[in-house]
Amino acid sequence: MRLTQFGTYVFPLFNKRDLVSTGDTGGTLLRLPGGGAYDAYGTDNAPEGIREVSTEFEIIASTTAAVQTARDQIRARAGLWRKLWAHFPDGSDRWAWARLSKVKMERRSAYLFYQPVGLTFEIKDPGWNGTGHGAAWYLDSGLYLDAGLYLDYDDTITLDGSPKTATITNGGNRTVTAAVLGFRAAGNAISGIRFVCGSCDWTFSGSVAPGKVLTIDTGTRSIRNDGVDAYNLLTLNAGHTVADWLQLKAGANSVTITYTCAGAASTLTPTFYDGWA
């Protein structure tokens, strides 16, 4: 893989080198007085700490003014929070939100038309985001139309009978916990929504009016019913045994939605990105 751009800034390819690592997952074991240790995460993945990735490249220009302009463009991005993109050998492009934490430039008198640059980024979330599901894809991401991205996916689940069993596929290799679940009531109100996926089992006890949308953000743990906060109406059931509201394992995930609705046209649209390590 190679880092390709930060926000709208495309990294030069001259003598380019990248260092990409995961976050630290150590420190989860607690030493016990009688020997041995206790791991509170059991068989679950331990959370990653802040991870650092870095890239080095060279600026080459025909005039000293052009080199200085390039230096200024890079330094102006220090501290910014933008999407950091990476390109992989299979032709795919993945991204993660990152902050440019350090800009390093060695200055020598001989560097008239040449400048080595080192950039360090901090990323708070684990892994990389791959193909998007559920939401619209916009043309201002900085990528080209022939980059291998999909514009025509449709992951909407029609709630045409309760209980409704469906499959949500995470095409990556890392568990996804951040998704937005949009329940749209079409024609008739929908209420008493129970959502089960693996070790996740919860119920929204409220009612969604016809034509309105219930939005459950499992990453930020926020709930909006037609834009109004409804956090207090969600209950974790006895079958819910993990800390996350949602865990989409790599591959196909079976989900079961139980609800009350007089019609058969309401929908669930899960919006997320494939998770990659």
Q: What distinguishing features does this structure have?
A:
277 residues; mainly beta; seven-stranded antiparallel sheet; 1 helix; 47% strand
Architecture overview:
The protein has about 280 residues and is mainly beta. It is about 5% helix and about 45% strand. It has one helix and 21 strands. It has a seven-stranded antiparallel β-sheet with strand order 2-1-7-8-9-6-3. Strand 1 and strand 2 form a beta hairpin. The longest helix has 12 residues, at about 65-75. It is elongated. It starts with a strand and ends with a strand.
Amino-to-carboxy terminus distance: 12 Å
Mean pLDDT: 90
| Count of runs of 4 or more consecutive helical residues | 1
* Shape verdict: elongated
Q: Please outline the major beta sheet.
A: 7 strands, antiparallel
Assembly form of the protein: single chain
What's a quick, concise take on this entry?
With 277 residues, the chain is mainly beta.
Topology:
Layout: E1 2-6, E2 9-10, E3 17-20, E4 29-31, E5 37-39, E6 51-60, H1 64-75, E7 81-87, E8 93-105, E9 114-123, E10 128-133, E11 157-159, E12 164-170, E13 180-184, E14 190-197, E15 200-208, E16 213-217, E17 222-225, E18 228-229, E19 234-236, E20 251-261, E21 266-276
Antiparallel strand pairs: 1-2, 1-7, 3-6, 4-5, 6-9, 7-8, 8-9, 10-21, 11-21, 12-20, 13-16, 13-21, 14-15, 14-20, 15-19, 16-17, 17-18
